[in-house]
């Protein structure tokens, strides 16, 4: 294994959905990937041409430009363009907005993964009927208004490929291949039309060994499902769901003008994320950035109602929040401060596990010896702006306006040494907050230096690890000996706190193991996977822990959204009696997994021997 392929492997292990691939398929990707360099302004993908690669940005910024000269921007770990590969035609032009390095995966390997790996396929192709039924049942909210007003003609419509019904199957397939189409419109002498797809060819020709000289009209579906190009895109969605189909024929004045594919319709639904990202990137004032950031809550709600997995939602939210923080820092801080500091987000934001905006958790590390007369006022402006964006102040003061979390690298190093020597009180939890830090802006080498200081401070310190890990046992699991829920008797009467009772023990227990094994990743699920790879947690238990934390984060997201809609305080309390039977059973199972994990942590770190 070369150093180069090792770098590929490390980078891809942090990028969805490659990080979820089984080892054999992951290695296949590593073997077939290359790195390409582009100067600012270089065209990476030309509109209308056949794509050759799937790109993942390693460094730099890429701009996507559509036919109307609208732009979207993609940054590090973003990828493009799955839709073009699936359509075998570049929809838009992609060019380097600055000096850029991209990992380039050959098209055929990407398409193989789509066919072979269900999770990889589902990442790019949601199952429409399953994902959208919940949306329709719950009603359409404010964030769907734009989608409902969009016309079919505003979406990507593929040109129709026509053949006469007497054309042999062999010749018809040749036409499909030449036109790079997945479907054919078959025309009959009576003026009628029918549709043939790749699925029809597989099911009606290949499997029954039908002669290739058979007329294509013999296998055609004559009942076409159509929609006029002036109709609303939402009605096309309803048609696809009602008939359980993946494409609908588009008419203009009764004549066939194209085919609307499921993937393109889904792209239109999800484009809100790209729009929000673009607005953040282009913001030139705090006010413009505030307007862009205000859309995030509606985007998150929309994705949750579509049934998108909570891990993808929290990752997207984390990415958008990070970009919001970065842009705000660039807007309010002088370049001298930016060049001599590193801005970090901490806690659940740092782990990319935050559901909705709760309180701020951020910090700044300064270059040793650097001072600036405006530092305090800049940090106050930064914090006040975040408050106006909907990020409340942290009750514990973990913010850049607090000098305790805004100091030099050497000052952090001295503080870390004290935390390790005296791990009682708040010291261990302060260490926990900082070990989850993720880089946002400024000089990344300062952030990397701080992480190295943290890991060096606790190297082989078993006593610290034990004192650190025992915090996972602070809160009782709210489940009785007879598997009944233990709820509050006053205050939050009949409710229980899922953060204290389940989320925190898993997060902190996993964090303790990750620290012991010097893992660089901060996300809890990623940490569990790496611990499994190292043999620290066996595969069955790792799977249970991942399922447990995924369920808990999904439940918390739903609770937060419901409380947000009712203008209630967003907290982590849930009333088990308001869950359905299935959810209650799952929550009981999760609490049992938490109890087992606590026992594992107790045994692993020998906590019975720690006072």
UniProtKB/TrEMBL annotation:
Keyword Electron transport: no
Cross-referenced SUPFAM superfamilies: cAMP-binding domain-like (SSF51206), CBS-domain pair (SSF54631)
Coiled-coil ranges from the UniProt annotation: none
Protein name: CBS domain-containing protein
Organism domain of life: Bacteria
One term of GO molecular function: [protein-PII] uridylyltransferase activity
Gene3D superfamilies (UniProt xref): CBS-domain, Jelly Rolls
Cited Pfam families: CBS, cNMP_binding, DUF294, DUF294_C
Domain Cyclic nucleotide-binding, residue spans: 17-114
Keywords, ordered alphabetically: CBS domain
Keyword set includes Iron: no
